[in-house]
Amino acid sequence: MESYIGHIRSLSEKRADHLESETLSLRTRLECSQQQSATLATLLEKTGLHCIAEESLGEQVAFLIADRAKLMEEIEVIKKLKFSNGVNGMSKESELLSEIIKVSSEKEVLRREVSELCDRVQLLEKASRQLEVDNERLAYK
């Protein structure tokens, strides 16, 4: 009976050691992941994308992929226009350049508007949470 208890104790100690090492490994991976998320949020904020900095990693990646695809489409359109120019190449290039500048400035304006709207949404969410807290306090009085 004692040998059986000793065997069970040995197995439970091995299992505890294994679980402890697995916990340490998972904790290390979690800390690394949190550090990477913080770094990514900082980079997004520095590049003017602070409205998606608080989103999940998947949503951030989806936004960046969509933005990249849109930019690639713009590049393809510009390349096609550049190659289709012909004799009037200089005038079309200047028109294209002015159009690119116009679109870029519009894009920047829209980006700022989105940023401002994100800020407003955050303020409204904060105010909404505060109103909920205030309502709960009033309900208990």
UniProtKB/TrEMBL annotation:
InterPro entries named in the record: CCD-Prefoldin_beta-like
Protein's name according to its UniProt entry: Uncharacterized protein
Top-rank taxon: Eukaryota
The organism of origin for this protein: Timema cristinae
PANTHER family, sorted: COILED-COIL DOMAIN-CONTAINING PROTEIN 30
